[in-house]
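Quick start: read one record
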Amino acid sequence: MPPLEGQDEPLKKMEKLLTSFMARPDAAPFLEPVDWRGLELFDYPEIVTKMMDLGTIKRKLERQQYGTAWECQQDIKLVWSNCMSYNAEGSELWMVAKSFNRKFEDKFRRIKQEFDVGEDLVDEQEEEEDDEDDKESDEDDEEEEEEFADGGDVSGGETSNKGRSSGGGGPSLDAKAQLAANLILLHGMELGHVMSILEQECPQALESVPDLDNEGSTTKSKSNNNHHSHTAIPDRVEIVMDALDGAVFTKISQYAAEKAMGRKKGLVDDPPLEDVSGKRKRKQR
């Protein structure tokens, strides 16, 4: 739909904000739709029922397919929430998505203070749709309300990650997100060095994730609102940020920051090698 009255300027602000996020190096996993078939993430559409990515949002803005800035921000937040729903809490991508979500909310709050972002208009449209549904079938409405009530708390407040917590004096969320973003930029030998440090000094921060090719060996676990699998035949490893102790966190943060900065400046030019820490299939939400 074309922008509703008074939404042209807020939507321009949203497009500018979106472009700034897309320009970040650590936003790469969120720029295009998740190739869940190619990555063999066959449980992805079961967990993420409404897929979204920043590139799709950008194209919708360019084609004027948002009526309000509020609708646009809902899609942007969906990108982060999808990632956090699919990836294990405390994992690299989970931390990046959580940091992006917080930063986006701060930026959007400023736009909302300056403009009418159309939240009331969206609410009115939803109320009209609800009224039409009421007329069609009261019985169907009751069933839908029961289903919604059953799943309404899925995205509720934060939970602990299997009892792991960095504590009040641990690294900040921004520090964890920065480490996650730097790790994504590392090549195979560099990641191997990080994994070696963790194996020797902080093995509890390493968590195996399943080989989805081994059919029948995987069981689902959805505790703490995380949708990930565990298998008796570990094939890949994820770093659980909340399980890192302070000294190890500082050591690998400094190493990853040095390598990532060198690569951005063109000072590091080693060829990409196979990731000895495991080929991470979970590239997105």
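Strands lie at 206-210, 218-221, 228-231, 234-239.
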